[in-house]
Amino acid sequence: SDETESKRDIMQKKTMEHPCYNCGAHKYARIHLPVAPACNVQCNYCVRKFDCQNESRPGVTSKILTPMEALERYRLVKEKMPNLTVAGIAGPGDALANWEEVSETFRLIRKYDPEVTFCLSTNGLMLPMHAKEIAELGISHVTVTLNAVDPHISGQIYKYIRFMGQSYEEDAAGAIMVSNQLAGIRMLVESHIIVKINIVTIRGINEMHIPEIVRTVKDLGCYITNIMQLIPVEGSTFERLEPIPLKRIQEIRKECETIMPQMYHCQHCRADAVGTLDKDQSIDLGGAVNPVKE
Ligand code: SF4
Ligand code: SF4
To answer: What residues make up the domain containing 23?
Structure first.
């Protein structure tokens, strides 16, 4: 229909101006708003005193903002940075585990700026429950971290997950994660949302499984995959796992490029990053934390 066509055109324009989805969009800036402190899972590579390891390097935890403070930061930055095209929520925990704050933040910013592109990143556990609202809020780009499509492999990546008031571990955790992630991704694609998949490559666990993940998400209609290196964090279950060399990561990406487009320029930005991807900018936010990447 015409409506679907024009929706697709808008999505395409937004994607062209999104620095994370288009290498040629480096002149555009994005802001991450740290309004999501809680997480509903415990990844074995994560230490919760840092930002979500799905998107961010181990560093300092972002200072949490309320939705009103996030709007204030957005306005300040937008005034100084007219090339700001994207507002995203990437933690420091999981966006969907803090849905009230996250949806309120997007509503407030949309009222102020009808043009801005919205994105969020999530571990995918709660996607089926929120996919409809994500579409209704006009969030056009979603990143899901999907480290396995096999429940047994997935179960080795989480120490536990918390779902509907219960904790699950091992294969049970993996089964819930994988089915919710895949069902949620399918719902997003049906709503014409552009989906990027982050995959953390973990030695001895999912290293050989990556092409299968990529084939699965290609079939689901995802836009790009971002195959990342695991950077072991002290204090995490996987702290002693040796990272897979970048050379090998590049080989895996090359192999997967025959299946679907690969992302090569993700900076693993902090949950409070501001600016273009080339250069995170330090802006005086009047007493707010300095949103500079370490
Ligand atoms: Fe950490 Fe992110 Fe995993 Fe939550 S989803 S445990 S914040 S890496
Ligand atoms: Fe873009 Fe990657 Fe930074 Fe997210 S973490 S804003 S995808 S470069």
So the answer is: 2-275
Mutate which of 45, 46, 231 for ligand 1 pocket (most atoms within 8 A of beta carbon): 46
Return the SS3 of 85.
strand
Residue nearest to atom 4 of ligand 1 (CA): 39
pLDDT in tens, 115-156: 999 999 999 999 999 999 999 999 999 999 999 999 999 999
Q: Is 257 inside a domain boundary?
A: yes
- Counting the structural domains of the chain, the total is 1
- Per-residue model confidence (pLDDT) at position 53: 81
Please state the pTM of the whole predicted model.
Answer: 0.89
Beta-sheet strands, E only, within 174-257:
194-201, 224-229
Quote the CA–CA distance of 217 and 210 in Å, as a whole number: 11
ipTM, 2 dp:
0.88
Pick the residue whose CA is nearest to atom 2 on ligand 2.
266
Residue 292 lies in a domain: no
The residue with tokens 């279950």 is: 237
